[in-house]
Task: structure prediction
Amino acid sequence: MKALDELTFDNRFARLGDAFSTHVLPDPLDEPRLVVASDAAMALLDLDPAVAQTPVFAELFSGHKLWEAAEPRAMVYSGHQFGGYSPQLGDGRGLLLGEVYNAAGEHWDLHLKGAGMTPYSRMGDGRAVLRSSIREFLASEALHALGIPSSRALCVIGSSTPVWREKQERGAMVLRLAPSHIRFGHFEYFYYTKKHEQQAELAEHVLNLHYPECREQPEPYLAMFREIVERNAEMIAKWQAYGFCHGVMNTDNMSILGITFDFGPFAFLDDFDAHFICNHSDHEGRYSFSNQVPIGQWNLSALAQALTPFISVDALKEALGLYLPLYQTHYLDLMRRRLGLTTAEEDDHKLVERLLALMQNSGVDYTLFFRRLGDESAALAVARLRDDFVDMAGFDTWADLYKARVARDGAYSEEQRRARMHAVNPLYILRNYLAQNAIAAAEAGDYSEVQRLHEVLTKPFEEQAGMEQYAQRPPDWGKHLEISCSS
Ligand code: AMP
Ligand code: MG
Result:
């Protein structure tokens, strides 16, 4: 276990130089205070969790103090936002403080979000408010606990610094961890500005540090792109299987590592709704729940375009062609497991599609349905769940197909079925209204609800005593909360 001053830095991205990022010092927040910290994320840096309670922790992650070996940099990138190209983006309110490596030899970027103005702030104030910082923190750690690849969050530090949004709020910072903060938009920036030399340097950097195994392949860059395609297909399959809506899948918010990244207005589905739009600013529904699948491919093609200096168009097209079939394989595999099936049959996709259509019609809670389906034998579970469906006859038809399918799958005890299904069907997810309750308490100065919710979400598959209130459908007020970009 390390103390805070024992972190070891190795700032590989900063060493790429001024064409890639700009040195900027964090602009500190007033009266910093710890809101919440993640012990699991602390462990990634070998940090003793107790150090989160020391005053210097809040000072470090609110911009008051800096390690001598840190090199805070604002990265430059661009990207396609809502389908249109924005030639100049970059870290407008976040700073890469440096890269820390742990005892296992892993490097982790320390990225401080809400750290003040940078050359890329455009019209923004460089700040993040408490509300959005808490949301990012909770989502990062909740996604990870669900087994969905994601950037991580070390802590949220609150403050008394006023920040203006629709009303006056308080500034906060979230410390984000990821093995890299390089986005699709980094490649697009150097491609569209025709900075060929730097683009080659960036590609070498990513290949060497993050895809070293691709070096062994006859065409290393192509192998790397293929791997990125595969990781995205798998990540998005997990989003769809667990009802996660990212909200702003612009190419500047897509990680080169295929991890969930920069998800401001995200939501987990309450009622199943394929057309759900979680981002209040997304008027056309470009990033609606079901559109995430084709948008994943669209984003990969935008990256492919930026990689044309290194890879032939034909090879890129072929690699892009892997996306949909891979997505479908991963998605179906997960959905089979959510249904408690251990074998594969040709028509399983129909079983899933029919169920989702029935859930859509009746507004059935997506998370609780699967959890309850695993509570008892298939016959007893469907008999109990049918009351949630308006089209009961339709559900009965599905239930008969399901019971027959379960019977063909094999003979299992109820115990085995429950254990297997509960291991993949969470009881607790980060519902918007739960986040909202925790945020309201935090805005009034009480951080205990954020901390409790975080704790519950670190073990989403385990029933936790006394935590029933976190496994409920939303009350009416919590069903249609409006969340928009960049807060
Ligand atoms: P996002 O929608 O959070 O992914 O942000 C898109 C772009 O806007 C990025 O370049 C951000 O750094 C920048 N940005 C968002 N909010 C702010 C802010 N409050 N101040 C400065 N830049 C911001
Ligand atoms: Mg962003």
